[in-house]
Structure formats: structure tokens, C-alpha cells
Amino acid sequence: MLTLSELSKAYGGRTLFANVSLSVNREDRIGLVGPNGAGKSTLFAIMLGAETADSGQIDFQRGVTLGHLPQENAPVTDQTVLEIATAITPEMAGLQKRLKAFEAGHDHDSADFHEVQSRFEQLGGYGLDAKAKKMLTGLAFRETDFHRPSREMSGGWIMRAYLARLLVLEPDLLLLDEPTNHLDLEAMLWFQDYLKTYPGAILMISHDRDFLNQLITDIVEIRQTRLFRYRGNYDSFLEQREANEAQLLAAYKNQQREIARLQLFVDRFRAKNTKASQAQSKLKQIERMEKIEAPTGDEATIDFAFPQPQRSGLKVVTLENVRFAYDDNLIYSGLDFMAERGQRIVLVGPNGAGKSTLLKLLAGVLAPQAGERVLGHNVKDGYYSQYRVEMLHAGWTVLEEALATPQRVTETFVRTVLGSFLFRGDDVFKKISVLSGGEKSRLALVKLLLDPPNLLLMDEPTTHLDLASVDALLFALQQFEGTIIFISHDVYFIRELANHVIHVRDGRLTPYAGDYRYYLDKTAPLRAAEAAAKATAEQAQNRAPKPSQDRKEQKRVEAQQRQARSRELKDQKQLVHRLEKEIAHLEARQHELTAELEKPETYAAAGRALEINMEIKSVIGELKRLTAEWETAASKLAEMEG
Fold first, then answer.
1. Are 109 and 191 in contact (CB under 8 A)?
2. d(CA 566, CA 113)
3. Which of 22, 193, 339, 517 has its CA 20 to 30 A from that of 12?
4. 486 neighbors 458 (Cβ within 8 angstroms)
5. How confident is the model over 67-91, as a mean pLDDT?
6. Among 134, 130, 126, 132, which residue's Cα sits nearest to residue 553?
């Protein structure tokens, strides 16, 4: 489907990758990982033709369609949300614009109208609405949002509309760059479930470890200008890389000892006539060796710990009988809330439920319109906004921003802290306005670190951080002795940090005195009932007669439904067939590896037995996962055929 051959790219004398190759096949699920600045987004840009490589080539299989979701910068237009989601090609967008002009009375040529309408119908335009509405609903748009102009919405919601368009297009290869950045937890979980049965290939960049573990079957790591491919999900990749590096380090040390031994002989005897030829032979032996490079360890990552703050009283923050509304939109009325020392509370719930508003009320960023917010004894709060720009001054430099702290600190100390957050050398003189999303996130963390609170309020703290930096942040927060209240769509981050969950919905708070697993267990029956009710409503809606449809329109809709069912059945058969082929391939590989392990000569090659055992472990794990997928897929196919 896609092949990169000997690709190289450098910026300003810094090489991002050199002579790298990669192939992407149909139905591949590949996660592209590496530290911020390693070149992940640049590699995407080269694939899309937005940038050119310094050398190498890219080959696409004929007819392959690509779809791309960038991290940021969705264009703001006068299109409605539904128009964005259905404008899957330039021609379709043009036809939509013409039809809109006809409806508005700006064009009165009836012959032209029928031609445009016919072409729109020929391209399946009328069937796109239903598919687009399904995607938009899954991404948490309300029905009342479908016909709203996108210019009235935030950048995050516009990005969701473009994500819906990508899913409606259903390209052969999806290129997703941090696709969960603009999603809340519930929309992210819907999106994750949708991608599990996506019929095309997926190549994604994501900082969300659990998201990668749920979806990815291969990891490609950009590291020290090279690409390394690993079979398995992200957790499996970490295990394999650690084992590979241990083996590489052992091999490197063995070779260095051998070189030192040979060199010692050369140095001692090259001047003696009787030994000179032997010394020369050993020198050539050293030169002929294929040198093993020393493992260089991980790229630079954030290295910090929150200073332990002053101990607060037991009651940390309280909201009493609070009312808050945005104009006529009432969010909370009679709201009561209390957090105690040492709690790590995650706020969950559907988009628009008021989670960010609650966090801002607790932080004092928003003032209650009735009731009061009370901070406990010795409580000092710190707010880490989802929108970093709210906390930073665009015209200041990194150093100026960091120095603007209530604490008395020296420039030397501040530069040391900035260095641990990867702001080194002249980086501290960069203007805030030119920083990347990841750099703004790191600088916001620096400001918290320089004036540490004992009540930490964080809105999507992992957005724009790479995976290694998320792990560093998580480790620091786990050691933090203060109180944390946060919102996140990163399931791994939530599981590892939260010890209390509060579900926010319709202005009501439902507390769960346990971690995220406890919350899922307690709410499983409710979620199952809601899903069943939604499915029943959709079925009833699909069966309901449409009084306004004439017979021709009804036949067209019925034909589309038959085609959709036929496509679904075909896709399901292909999925079952693919899983069966993959399982057979893995079983054969397991047999080959076991046979090799039984051969005595295997143990004569240093490290080969360990390598085989590791691959067997990986194959068994993958077999277990694929078998479970096959059972689910085969059961669904049987139901569809029945």
C-alpha cells in the first residue's frame, strides 16, 4: 500500500532521520512513537506531499486513498458542522455549495439544478448525511449542532468535525496525528471502539499509552535518526526494546573486551621481529570486525519531581450551594462539593456536562453567582489549564515567564529547572508565541514547580506531551503528597493516578470512592442499559416510515440500506478471513521457533535461545489476542448471516 525507501530529512543541520525504510500494508495498525521533535509529524508531512525528503522515495499502490488528521489548525469557514463532515472530496464540497445556493434562491437555473442534484446523488451524497450524523453523534455533537456554522465553535470542536469527515470518507490509509487531543473521555472511548473495526490501515502518532495498547499491532520508533519496528502493542514494545538493549549491551561489552585483548597483543609485540606478523594479523582482525554500536539509552525527556508542599488541613476545598450559568445556560444550581487532603480525584462525564467549569470554580478562575468557594487551612491552589495560552504571556520569553513567580528565586536556579524540562541554552530566549504545544505544556509545568501548590487542579495535563514525558509527569504526581483534582481523556493516566472518581452529568455530581476500575465496575450495568436503549432507538428510527418521501426516494433509501448491509457482511467476512490467516501464520511461526529451540546448535550461538524464547512469548501473546478477536468476529458474522 505504501513504501518508504531510504528516506532522509534534515532541518538546519540537524538530521531527523537518515536512510529509513518502512512498508505499510492493508489493515496494518501502526503506532509511530518517539520523543517530541524526533520527526514524527515531519514523516507524515512527507507522506502527504506537504514536505519533500532530502533523499529517498515514496511509492503508493495505485488507487490508494489517504486521509489525514493533523494535530492543530483546522480551517474556520462558514460551513455548518454537517457540511464539513459530508464534504469528503473537493467535488462533493463544490456540489454542496451549489445546492445551498439553489436552496437560498441565489441561482434559478432549473436545468443546472437538476444536473447538480443528479451528480450529487450519483456520488452518494444523500446517503452521506446519515453516516456523517452517526460519526458526529459518536464524537459528542448534539443534533442541534449539526446545522450550526463552524465559525461559532471552538477550535477543538472544529477539529472533531474534520475527524468526522475523515471517518465518513473512510480512506484506505488513515494518518492520525494525536487524534485524541480534542476529545473528552467518552468521545475518545467511542472513537477507540470505532477504530477497532476500521476496514483500512491506520498509522498514528499518539501520546495516549492505553489508546495505543487497545488498537496497535506494530510500533515504529523514531530513535537517533533511525526507524525500529516492533511487533505488538506499546507495552510489548517497551519489553522488547529493554530486552534488545540488554542483549546489545552485553554483545557490545564482549566485543570491546575482545578488541582490548587483541589490541594489547598488538601493542606488546608489533615491534618484535618474531611476533610482528602475528601482531599485524590481529590488527587486521580488529579492522575486519563488524563493530557493534554502544546502546545510547533514551532520548532526553522531562526529569523532575514536584517539591512536597506545606501540609494542608483535612478539608482542602469546598463548594457550598453554588450556582453558575453562562447567560441562560444553567450549569449548576445548589452544587455542593468537598475534597479532602491526599485525594486524587478525576472528573468524568459526557462533553458539555460541566467538568471544566467545575474545575475552574474550584480553582477560583470562575466566581460562583450564588453560594461560595472555601479553601481549607493552609491551602494553596495551582491551576494547570487545558488551554496553556491562558496561563502564558505570548510576548514574553521562556525565561521571563519562568522568572515571573511569587517565590524569590535566582535566574541560575530557574535556568536549572528549565533545563530539566528540556529548555537548554538559547531555548530560554524563545518567545512564548513561537513555542509548540508540547513546549507550552512543559513551561506551564515549570511555573507550577517554581511555586508549588498543595491543591493541584489540572485540565488535560497530558495533551501535547510525548509518551516518555507523560510517564515522567505521572511518576512525579504519584509522589506528590498534596491533593489533585483533574480531567483527562488518557485512560492509562487516569488508571495510574486517580483514587476517587466523580461523574458529572446534568449539573449533578456522583462520587465513587475508589479508582477508575472500581468506577467502571459500578457503572457497567448502567452503560449497558444506555447502549441498548440507544440501539433500540436507532433501529426504530430506521424502521419508521418517512411520510415526505415519494416512492422513488423510498426505493433509493432501501437500496442504500441493502448495499450497506452487504458491505458490512463483506467487511465482516474479510475480517474473519484475515484473522484466520494471521492465526495460522502465528501458529506456524510458533512451531518453527519451538523446533529451533530443540536443536542443540541453537545454544551454540550467543543469545539466540533468549531471542527465540522472547519471540515465542510475543507470538503466544499475539495468538491469545487474535483468537479472542476471531471469536468475537466469527460470532458477529454468524449473527449477520443468520
1. no
2. 32
3. 22
4. yes
5. 80
6. 126
Phi, psi of 328, deg, nearest 5:
-90, 0
Beta strand ranges found along 377-491 (DSSP E): 381-384, 455-459, 483-487
The per-residue pLDDT for range 486-526, each reduced to its tens digit, is 999 899 999 999 999 999 998 999 999 999 999 988 888 87
- Output b/e per residue, 430-448; b: 16+ Cβ within 10 A: eebeebebbbbbbbbbbbb
Determine the Cα angle at 571 with ends 568 and 575, to 5°: 135
Q: Who contacts 435 (Cβ-Cβ below 8 Å, separation ≥6)?
A: 398, 443
| The three three-digit cell numbers of residue 389, written as one number | 495560552
Q: How far apart are CA 206 and CA 69, in angstroms?
A: 12
Structure-block grid coordinates of residue 83: 457540511
- Average the pLDDT over 536-565 and give the result: 59
Sign, CA torsion 517/523/528/531: negative
- Block residue for cell numbers 443468520: 642
| pLDDT tens-digit series, residues 576-616 | 888 888 888 888 888 888 888 778 787 777 778 788 888 88
Grid cell in block for residue 429: 530566549
Helix axes 110-122, 125-138, angle to 10 degrees: 60
CA atoms within 13 A on the CB side of 116: 20
- CA quadruple 577, 583, 588, 589: dihedral, nearest 10: 130
Dihedral (CA of 141, 145, 147, 150) sign: negative
Residue 600, exposed/middle/buried by CB under 10 A (0-12, 13-18, 19+)? exposed
Q: Binning pLDDT at 50, 70 and 90, where does residue 104 land?
A: low
- Alpha carbon distances (Å) from 598 to 244, 350, 462, 495, 590: 22, 55, 47, 42, 13
| 308-321 pLDDT per residue, tens | 888 999 999 999 99
The torsion angles phi and psi of 373, rounded to 5 degrees, stand at -110, 130
Q: Quote the crossing angle between the two packed helices 125-138 and 90-103, to the nearest 10°.
A: 100
User: What span, in angstroms and rounded, lies between the C-alpha atoms of 132 and 128?
Assistant: 6
Q: How far is CA 350 from CA 137, 195, 489, in A?
A: 12, 20, 11
